[in-house]
User: Fold this.
Amino acid sequence: MSVATPALEVVGAGHVAQPDRPRLLRVSSLSVSFPGAEGRESEVVSELSYEIAQGETLGVVGESGCGKTMTSLAIMGLLPTGAKVSGSIEFDGKDLTAFSSRQWRCHRGRDVAMVFQEPMTAMNPVMKVGQQIAEVLVKHERLSKRAAFGRAVELLASVHIPSPERRAQDYPHQLSGGMRQRAMIAMALACRPKLLVADEPTTALDVTVQAQILDLMLELQETYGTAIQFISHNLAVVSEVAHRIMVMYSGRMVEYAPAEDLFANPLHPYTQGLIRTLPDIAQPMAELYTIPGSVGGKRPSGCRFSNRCPLADARCREAEPALREVMPSHHVACFKVN
Amino acid sequence: MNALVEVDNLNLHFPIDGGFFKEKLTLRALTDVSFSVEEDETLAIVGESGSGKTTLGYAISGLLTPTSGRIKFGAALGGHSQDRPVQLVFQDPFSALDPRMMVGDIVAEPLRLQGVSRAERLQQADDVLEQVGLPAESARRYPHEFSGGQRQRIAIARALIAKPKLIVADEPLSALDVSIQSQILNLLNKIKRDRTISYLFISHDLGVVHHLADRVVVLYLGRIMEIASRQDLFATPSHPYTQALLESVPRISRGRRKPGQALKGEIPTPLSPPPGCVFHTRCPRAQEVCRRQVPELLPAPGRPEQLSACHFKD
Assistant:
């Protein structure tokens, strides 16, 4: 990765909601772009700035194509080749954008770890589950293979997999979807990372198993003090775990607030739309609200949401609104919010 | 109301041949399932993965043959189970559409089987694509040019073109973003308003079911746990499993979750279902009797229309 521009201070962004906890991750003006057809660049993440404190859960919400996954891949140093990155990512005082590939390898799996949406494709299908978990420990903690396998069994027990000794000898396809995701979390937590990036970890699961996995993540956070960046397209799922929430739209942050504030007082029309599209058991409606249009396609000029926004006027189509702190710790990028 | 489909004591078991030296096993996908789908009704089938929802949908579509029991199509269908006016919509709109066929041909395929001419088929395909909210030129494009939500619309158009009486929709929203889910839910409701059609709507998510279903069947490990109207099921869930399913639906109004409320454990294997009530291994109310005796599907106290299979039902 190359650093094109030095870190910029963005006014209003990067406020830590829980000042008692020290900062762990600080992303400043992060932009990610890919070379497109005819020499044009497509920017998938634009000028993103946020922070995560130790032991805190940041929820990242937006539809498919909003740049949620690209942001996490940038933190993990796993962006596809060809990606151009600018801005800075500071983790525990170290600037990740200056890392060599060797430093990244040391960092990944030990300081930060990732849990993916579909554990079946994220795990090696021809390697026993226990061995896959042990591999991380052999690499990072220099344990012997035997000792690492023993630790792997303990880790499987810690994520409440029944008969972990036997399960460690299983291949991924022999586990149920929920158990695979537990094993995936065990693997991610093998070296007690300070930050866990969970990208749609429950989307492929049943609601009952989803509830169990959310419970597990809260429990492990309580035990180990791990910070979590939790990504989902479903605001309701995010509301179950997040301390703070960042709403992304088309590569930009449009709202950023403590979870209670966001739900009590959603300010951005996109956030309001996301909340209204959720079916609510408490209040059945004949017609569900839908946000017209979709994220894809050509970006409109001005505010990127202007072509789908019910409130958009001429000003919104001309200029892009900056992120402002409109209430303590509550940031929004919209001209229509006072 | 007239019954469109009556399912009577349906059993569907798959024999598993474990190999030469291994004993033969039986996978009990569905056991003693009885219910009916009325005309112009949306019946939701709810349960976790492995509860037999998809098997049930396939059995009603005629894709699987029951081991015992009957699936009877009512007078409205002429009583012939051979020509079932049933169409299916699948979960994954990416694998459900042939990537090498033009959308118009995909949508019109059910008519091809009925011997309708190509020009007539494509004309009808254009009409039905418009009804599901896709632009007119969609028929001459290929599936890869469409997003997930649009592909699900194509799959719905294909199901609609043969004018079925019943659409079996197997988790049609699970592969989609929530913002797109609400669009497809609204589309299904709109279709229902415009024509007389029944849905068998299969889902693991009660939150979604709430916006569509007239009645709900809760399935667990191949058995019916509860059948009730939507109002009764959501207002006064009777079976502990239904209550657990409701509890696990994420809601924004609750704030950060308090751990420990999730239903424990996983659904047991249908190769050897637990004796007695199949849910007793995970049930917070399980007593000795639950381990011995299969509870019958009986009305909940004071609610004759709400059936629940539990010794200690609410």
